[in-house]
Structures are given as C-alpha cells and as structure tokens.
Amino acid sequence: MMRFGFDIDDTLINLREHAFHLYNKKLGQDVALEQFNALNKVEIHDLFGMTREEGSKMWVDTLEETYYTDCPAYPDAVETLQDLIKQGHEVYYITARPAEHGERTMKWLVEQGFPMKESRFYCGMKDQEKVNIIRELQLDFYFDDKPAVLNTLTDDTLRVFVKDQSYNQELEIPRITNWAELKELI
Ligand SMILES: [Mg+2]
C-alpha cells in the first residue's frame, strides 16, 4: 500500500482553462486559446488587458462559477485514481482552495467520479504550507502543477511529480503529461 497525494486545480482538473473560457464569455472577448496555452505564468488576467488588481477581483467574482460548474477533469484522472483505490492504495487531496469551499469541493469531486474519504481531504492552506501536511501524511507520491509548491518539496522519501503546464516548464523534476502514465510509475 502506498500513499498518493494530489493537488486538485490544474493537476487533476482543467480549472485555469475553464476560468479562461468563462472570462472570455463574461467580458465579451475572444482571446485565442493559443495565447492561453503560451502563457508562462499562472495568472491569466494579462490576456484580457486587466491589471493585477482587476485580475484578482475577476478571479474572486468568478470563483463560484469556476469551481462549481462544468470544469472538466483531465483525461484518465478519475479512472487512474479509482484504480489506485482498487489496488489498495490511499488517495489524499491537498488543495489551497479556501476552507469555506472544502465541503462543496468534496461533493463536487464525488459528483465527477473521484474517490473520496473526508479524512483524506485537506484544504485552506497557503501554497507554501502544503509541505507541512505532505510531510505529516508521509506520502509516497505527490503531484502538483505549481512551481511555488513544488519548490518547497525536497524530502528524499517523497517522489514528487509536476503535472505538465506551460508555466512550469523550467522545473527539472519528473513530469506527468497524461494521467494514464501514472501506472507505469509504480
Ligand atoms: Mg494546482
């Protein structure tokens, strides 16, 4: 039995691109997906001509819709995590989503087909604080997309993987592009 930890947004589900499409619709713009795909940073407000402040406000104002509408899971994410459970492994979620969104996020994940145990869901921490929970849980594997998180994880016993994204290309750690690749890692 091994313990697998996963970030949620932009690791298991395509949240940032989902937000990108919502922004286009809300702002009546038609920014091309190619521009989104070429971004070398996490924040997307530049594409819409917004300042950092305007971008933060837009993110907060759109959050409800971004989180709880039809954001797609990445291909094979649900199936891969379900397979891990079937094989007797443990699946943990470690997300920086605000604590007040914890319950609904769990419910939403279950509706999408992700395996869930309430005691294995952690939320409300800052990106830089994930490291403490990851250590406490003594995970064997951890997957995330964000350089700000991954750069804090240097534990020898933990195998860390980056979910491939346009803004994390500089990270020199093992990379996962499609979730179907996970079974070859274990
Ligand atoms: Mg993430």
Automatic annotation (TrEMBL):
Catalytic residues as annotated in Swiss-Prot or TrEMBL: 7 (nucleophile), 9 (proton donor)
Gene3D superfamilies in alphabetical order: HAD superfamily/HAD-like
Pfam families cross-referenced by the UniProt entry: NT5C
Keywords noted in UniProt: Hydrolase
Gene Ontology terms describing biological process: deoxyribonucleotide catabolic process
SUPFAM superfamilies: HAD-like
GO MF, one example: 5'-nucleotidase activity
InterPro entries listed in its UniProt record: 5'(3')-deoxyribonucleotidase (IPR010708), 5_3-deoxyribonucleotidase-like (IPR052419), HAD-like_sf (IPR036412), HAD_sf (IPR023214), Nucleotidase_putative (IPR009206)
The UniProt record lists the keyword Transmembrane: no
E.C. code: 3.1.3.-
Keyword Hydrolase assigned: yes
Assigned protein family: Belongs to the 5'(3')-deoxyribonucleotidase family.
Name of the protein described by the UniProt record: Nucleotidase
